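Pasting as-is:
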Amino acid sequence: MLSDIEIAQKAKLDHIRNIAAKLGISEDDLEQYGKYKAKLPLSLIDDTAVDRSNLILVTAITPTPAGEGKTTTSIGLADGLSRLGKKVAVVLREPSLGPVFGIKGGAAGGGYSQVVPMEDINLHFTGDFSAIEKANNLLAALIDNNIQSKTRSLGIDPRTVLWKRCMDMNDRSLRKIVSALGGKSGGIPMETGFNITAASEIMAILCLSNDMAELKERLGNIYVGDTFDGKAIYARDLNAQGAIAALLKDAIKPNLVQTLENVPAFIHGGPFANIAQGTNSVIATKMGMSMADYVVTEAGFGADLGAEKFFNIKCQNAGIAPKAVVLVATIRALKYHGGRALSELQEPDAKAVEAGAENLRKHLETIASFEVPAVVCINRFQSDSDEEVEVLRKVCDQYGVKVAVSEGFVKGSEGTTELAQAVADVITDAPASFKPTYNLKDPVRDKIEKICRTVYGAKYVILSNKAKSQLRRFEALGFGEMPVCVAKTQKSLSDDEKLLGRPKDFDIHIREFEIAAGAGFLVPIAGNILRMPGLPGVPAAEGMDIDADGNISGLS
């Protein structure tokens, strides 16, 4: 079989004006970036149409390090629904360059279920990440400048400044640094660091804002640090929000591209799910729902992270809810959760699948807690035996949940029609009645406990003394009615990445809190979560090249 990039390069792309026409978008509304990409004005959002559209969320069981193919499944499902004659769009996050050049590769799908132009989407695309990076770093520069100023100083205590610079690359050397060396003209030396752009609060803000006015207000609400006498300082105190918003004037507009089968695809924003809300922008989702009868979207990592935050943060913030959830499972992941080593996942082992299915069961129970019907998608690989697949089907039968095999990677929409039909049937036969895990007015600790018990299956939540002190501070500042965005490992339902399958009787330890006041959520941190990843021993970048004619190879 051809590689992902070879398949993408051989594809026959339709002009972006024709893709837009499928959704009723006039060519006059397109801001074209060449022949195959365009940005769209926010005026195209129609809240009445949003209410009528069928939103479908794609999530997954707890993933293996390579991921379980949520994006590939999302794209394949959209193609499959289109094959059934549905008016459909897929709405996804933009890839971060860190994973592209690191271990996971790109995030434009795979095989014959991809969004294209694949190279553009995985690299600089339309410049959104660059704009977010510059906006983030402008605020950092304004903070440092105010600390240095003798005439307009707000009296910011450098020791309390939480804001870091960012760049869209895995670079562990920048996690912790000392800035402003070189004497008085270089500023006030202080300990700081870099986050990857997808972990910037500005990324989260962009993806939760409904329009430019709200974006600017949220930017002004960013909590910077405290003065020497303990007064909280926000970005608005630095008059920063206007200039930062100006840098985002184009980045706020969603991007329109297409799948390999010429189905419209909106790609916009890209916050990670283990440290932020893990889903594309509210604006892109609502724009897709304004124009298509069925809209497929996805949330990062497993249902304990991406789906939980999609429901409790994005849905409550935007006033939307999915009509169905697709839970992606792979035989290899179930064997991994059943005790087999990563190197052994190609070997048939029905007993390991049965043991690992406990992880699937927990995620099904989590989705059921939101009162939205689920369909289990078996993202099938060539090494999967019929016996293993049958084990998984029996588990789903026990829960009364529809199950469908997806072979979109190999067959495109021909391999996803079973899944598409199952999803369409569920939406028709089992109306959703979305119910969040908690009420926003619940005390912060209660919100955390409800997530940890209902979604993770934890027994107790234990806050460190530091976390208790920080929580008292943030509640005193008026942040108690915000949703919570738990930061924890994606490798386990618990906060210990070594506990695979369905761990029980475990505790969740919250070591500290962070506040994303602009994004509008509190971040309880469980475990050691990195906001600036590092490259693996053999990074994907080493296998990439470009020839004299500009043809890229090795990107996947």
